[in-house]
Amino acid sequence: MKLKNRLLCSYLIIIILGLIPCFMALNGYGKVRSDFETITQNILIGYQAMMNAKQSALAMIVETRDYIESGDESLLKYSRKDMDDLMKSLHKHLEHEMHIGDKEKGVAEDMKHKGRRLADLCNSLITSYSRGAGEEMLSEERKKIRIAENELFKELNRHLGVHHQELIETQNTISQTIINSFGRSLGISILILILALAIAFYMTRSILRPVHRLKKGAKIIGDGNLNYRVDINTTGEVAEVADEFNKMTERLANIKNNLENQVAERTLELKNSEKRFRDIAESTAEWIWEVDSNGRYTWCSGKVEQCLGYTADEVIGHTPFDFVPRKERERVALIFKELIAAKAPIVNLENINLTKSGEKVFLLTSGVPFFDDQGKFCGYRGVERDITEQKRTEKALRKSEEKYRTTIEDSMDAIYTNARKGEFIEVNKSMLDLFGYTREEMIGLNAIELYAHPEERQGSIKQIDQKGSHREFEVEFKKKDGTVMDCIITATVRRDDNGEILGYQGIIRDISDQKRAEQELIRTNKQLEDAIGRANQMALEAESANNAKSEFLANMSHEIRTPMNAILGFTDMLFDTDLDESQMDYIKTVKSSGKGLLSLINDILDFSKIEAGHLDFEEIEFDPELLAYDVCEMVRPKIGSKPIEVLCHIGDQIPSMVKGDPTRFRQVLTNLIGNAPKFTNAGEIELSLDVEEEEDKRVKLHAKIRDTGVGIPKDKLSAIFEPFKQADGSTTRKYGGTGLGLSICKKISELMKGEVWAESEEGKGSIFHFTGWLKKTKGKGAKRFASVSL
Description:
Blueprint: H1 3-17, H2 19-70, H3 74-98, H4 102-130, H5 135-188, H6 193-222, H7 237-283, E1 287-292, E2 297-300, H8 304-308, H9 312-315, H10 326-342, E3 346-354, E4 360-371, E5 377-386, H11 388-410, E6 414-419, E7 424-427, H12 429-435, H13 439-442, H14 455-467, E8 469-478, E9 484-495, E10 501-510, H15 512-574, H16 581-612, E11 620-622, H17 624-639, E12 644-650, E13 658-660, H18 662-679, E14 683-694, E15 698-707, H19 729-735, H20 741-751, E16 755-761, E17 765-776, E18 787-789
Parallel strand pairs: 12-14
Antiparallel strand pairs: 1-2, 1-5, 3-4, 4-5, 6-7, 6-10, 8-9, 9-10, 11-13, 12-18, 13-17, 14-15, 15-17, 16-17
Helix pairs in contact: 1-2, 1-6, 2-3, 2-4, 2-5, 2-7, 3-4, 4-5, 5-6, 6-7, 15-16, 16-20, 17-18, 18-20
C-alpha cells in the first residue's frame, strides 16, 4: 500500500479521536513530501550540471594538449565543442541557482566566470601555438591553464560538497518535521495516546526506515561509493524516491566511469602522440635539431650520429660552426648572420661539414625561428639532410654531359636538335659542314628549308609522332649552295615530363657516294652474273670432261693391271729356275719395277674413283690392333739393311673389334708408314694407335706415324696432301712417287669423318696423324702386346 493510503487510513481513525492530530499529521506529511521533491529536483539538477561541467572541462584540457603535441587540426573541433559544453553546463547551473537565492547565484556566477577563464586560456594556448609561439610561451600558458583548472575543479568539488550537505540537512529536516508532528499530536490527544502511539510507531517505522536508508545511502554515495544502492522493501512514494535515488546514483556512476575512461583514453593518446613524435624523429632520414638564441644545440635527434659520427650528447652545447671547415665557416657564418638579424627562415642552405673521422659531407639545412610568449627570439628549429651522394651524382652527371656534348660535337655524323615546328636549336660541326651553313645561320633555321621536296617532312614527322622514332629513312636534302644530296636520317621525338612533344633530335648521314656505289655495284653484279653463267657452263663442260677422264683412267688402269699381274706371276716362276747371278738381278729388277708400276696403277685407279665419287666402303668386323701389327711387319722389307727400328704401340682403350672397311684403313696406314723408310736412313719408325673420342655406338681412332728422317719444310706441309704434289721436285727424282698417295689418304680420312695432317721439323723427322670413325661391335679379337719392337 502506498504511503498516502496508509496515512489516510491512520488519520481517519485518529480523526474520530481528534481532528487536530490528524491535521498536524497531514501537514507533516506534506512537509516531508515537499522536502523529498527538493532533493530529487533542486539538488539533483545542480549536482548533474556541475558533473557535466567537470567532464567537459577535463575533455577540453586533454584535447587542447593533444592538439599542441600532435598538431592534428581535427582535435580543434572537439576542443571547441567541449568549451561550449562547459559553458552550457555552468550556465544551466547558474539558472538553477538563481531560483534558490542570491548567495547560490553569486557562487554559480563565480563558477561560470572561472569556467570562462579556463576556456579562454585553452583558446589562447591554441592560438599561440597556431601562430608559432615559442616553447617558453606555451609552457607559461600551460601553467595558467593548470591554475585555472585547479581553481575551477576546487570550486566544483566544494559546491558538490555543499549540495551533498544540503541533501543531508534536508533529510534531517524531514526527520525533525515528522518527530515534531508526532509530538504535537501526542500532547494534544493524550486520550488517544495508546492508539496514536501505535499509529505513530507504525507510521514512523514505515516512513523513517526508508528515509534513514536514503540518508545512509546518500552519505555512502557522498563519500564516493557510487556502486552502493538503497534497498527499501516497501512500496509507495518512499520506494519511488529510493528508486529514483538509485537511478541517480547509477547515472552518476556511469558518468564517473565514462569520465575516467575518457581521461584514460586521452592519457593514452597523449603518450602515443609523444611516442609517435619521437619515433618519427628517429625514423626520418633527416637529422632534426634545435639551437638557442646563441646558436648552440639544445636538442637533436639520433640521426646526427649517422651524418657526422657524433652522438647527440656530443653535439649538444656546440654550435653548427664547430663542425664546418675553416674555409666554409666564413661563408656560412655570413649567411646565418643575415638570417638571424632578419629572423628569417633557413631554406635549403647547402654547406659542408666535417665528420668525426674528418671526412667531408654535404648537408642541406632548413629551419625556422621560434619565439617565447612575449615574442622574444629563442632560437631555430630545423633539419639537416645528407646530400653527399647527390652532389657526387651531380658532379658525375656534369662530367657525363660534358663528355656527351664533346662526343656529339666531334662525331662524324651530322647531329641536330630542333623545336616542334622545326627550328634548329642545336647542331654539331658535322651538320654545319654537311649543309654549308655557319652556326649562326643554322640556329633558328627551319628544317623544312633543307628538304629538296618539302612535302616529305610532313609524312616523316607524322610517323615519328606516332611511333616515337623513325630509323634510317632516305631523304633528299639540299645544301646551302643548292646541291641535292641523298641522306639517311634517324630521328626520335623529345617529350617533357607530361608526355608533351617538345621537338625532335636526330642523325643525318650523307649517302650520295654510297648511292652511286650501289648503282655501280648493280652494274657490276649484272656483269658478274653473266660471267658466272658462262663459268657454270664451262664447269659443266669441265666436269663432263673430268668424268670422261676418270672413266678412261679406270678402264686403262684395269687394262694395264691385267697383263702386269701376269708379268709378275711369271717373274715369280722364274725365281724357281736355275739362274746365274746376273739373271737373278735382272729378274729382281723386273719384279721390283712391276710392283712399283702396279702400285702406281692402283693409286691412279683409286684417285679416279674418288674424283668420280665411286669409291665404296665396306662394313665388316676387323681387329684394329692386329691390322696395325700387320702394317708394321709389311714395312720391314722396305727398310733393308738400314739401321732403323720399327715400333708399334697400341693404346689400352683400343677395342678388340670394330666395324668398318679394313682395306681402306690399312691403305691409309700403309701409305703413311710406307713413305717413312724412303726418307729415314737411321733411327726409328713408330706407329701408335689410340682412342681419341668415343660415343655410344662408334669410336674415333687416332693413328700417329713418327720417323726420324729428313723432315719436311713447314711451308711445304700443306702442299704434300694435294694431288701430284711433293715437297719439291728433287723428291720425285731422288725417292720416286707420283704425289697421289697422301692425297688419297686425305680423301679416305674425310670419307671416314676424320682428317690427316702432318707435323715436321727439318733434320729431325716427321709425325703424320690420321683419324677416322669406326662403328663399335661386340666381337672379340686376339689381343697381342700393347707395345712391340719389330
